[in-house]
Write a structure and sequence with these properties.
Elements: H1 6-18, H2 35-100, H3 105-152, H4 157-174
Helix pairs in contact: 3-4
């Protein structure tokens, strides 16, 4: 084979088809054939034979590639069928074992669904609690920032006292003390 892979040959034969018909060979009669014309005919014959060999080689190569890919796909499909059959067999065995021990598979499926639901609910509640804790941390930090700003730049005693009292109330709301009996 003189060229590259299947793409090369597809382009090569597309170009062959696109050649204008003006290049088509002239028909010769025996009386008009000279040695030069005979050499040209032999050269065309050799080129045609080489093109035919190249086409056969490319077709064989392409057939091999397609065959390999289809074999791989078939092997993968067989493996998936084996896995599905194994899973079905294991499921039947599991259900039979559960029934033999007095359990009902449907009840177990329902129980599993309830457990899954509770787990999702617990994760959601935990996420909300973490978000709330993060908000509280931000509020405390903002209280600290405001208190520092008020103490650094007092404008009037009443205003400063009001800010500080408000911050004490916010902190008391964030961290309530346990009532003593």
């Amino acid at each position: 084979m003189t060229g590259g892979g299947p793409i090369y040959w597809a382009n090569h034969y597309a170009q062959q088809r696109e050649r204008p018909t003006a290049e088509q060979p002239v028909r010769y009669i025996v009386a008009t054939i000279t040695s030069d014309v005979l050499d040209q005919l032999y050269a065309r014959l050799v080129k045609a034979e080489q093109d035919a060999k190249d086409s056969i080689t490319a077709a064989a190569h392409l057939t091999t590639l397609v065959g390999r890919r289809s074999e791989r796909a078939e092997q993968a499909a067989k493996a998936e069928r084996r896995r599905a059959d194994t899973a079905q067999t294991e499921l039947r065995t599991l259900r039979a074992g559960l029934r033999a021990n007095g359990a009902e598979p449907t009840q177990l499926q329902n129980l599993w669904a309830q457990i899954s639901l509770r787990n999702r609910q617990w994760r959601a509640a935990k996420q909300r609690a973490e978000q709330a804790e993060a908000v509280l941390v931000r509020v405390r930090a903002e209280c600290d920032r405001i208190e520092a700003a008020v103490r650094d730049t007092p404008t009037s005693a009443d205003l400063t006292g009001g800010y500080l009292a408000a911050l004490r109330h916010i902190r008391a709301a964030l961290d309530p003390q346990e009532p003593t009996p």
